[in-house]
Design brief:
By secondary structure, the protein is an alpha+beta fold. The protein has helices at residues 29-50, 87-94, 144-153, and strands spanning 15-19, 62-69, 74-77, 81-82, 102-106, 114-121, 124-135. Helix content is 25%, strand content 28%.
């Protein structure tokens, strides 16, 4: 697989950020709702583009999230998921039981098959890094060594 040296983009974005602290301190419930809706809509559009043939050099049919997560910093991964309009929303929000978080998706290696998700929340206030890998539907789960090798190839060395 060819590794691109230039920064990739998805719909012109190099990243996507969820940070409720961006709202002014005196924000109303409506302000929060507007923020949540606009960010959710953008996330759905990014997901749909990710899986749309012809929208990228290498579109994604399936993906899997892998990383060191939770308060124990344990290596873990999701099951292989079909990439559709809710894929990124699922990976950011639904893989965590905490509604208060800061999250960032980095698309700089999206064409090479990796999106980096960093987020901080109650169990990991200093943050955790999760890698979303493009994969095949019938792909077997990745072991820790395979993940670390792939990250090193892309210059995304994981520091435990």
């Amino acid at each position: 697989m060819e590794v691109k040296k230039d920064m990739d983009k998805l719909l012109g974005y190099t990243d996507w950020v969820w940070d409720e602290s961006e709202l002014p301190e005196d924000s109303s419930e409506w302000d929060y709702e507007d923020y949540a809706i606009s960010q959710s809509n953008l996330l759905a559009e990014l997901s749909a583009t990710l899986s749309s043939p012809g929208s990228m050099d290498n579109h994604w049919d399936y993906g899997i999230a892998v990383g060191y997560v939770g308060w124990m910093n344990s290596f873990g991964q999701t099951e292989v998921k079909e990439v559709d309009s809710v894929f990124l929303k699922y990976m950011v929000f639904d893989t965590l039981n905490d509604s208060h978080m800061i999250a960032k998706l980095d698309f700089s290696k999206v064409e090479s098959g990796v999106i980096t998700l960093t987020r901080s929340h109650h169990d990991r206030p200093m943050g955790e890094t999760i890698y979303l890998f493009r994969c095949e539907e019938d792909q077997e789960m990745l072991d820790e060594e395979q993940v670390l090798t792939k990250l090193k190839e892309l210059g995304l060395d994981e520091e435990e």
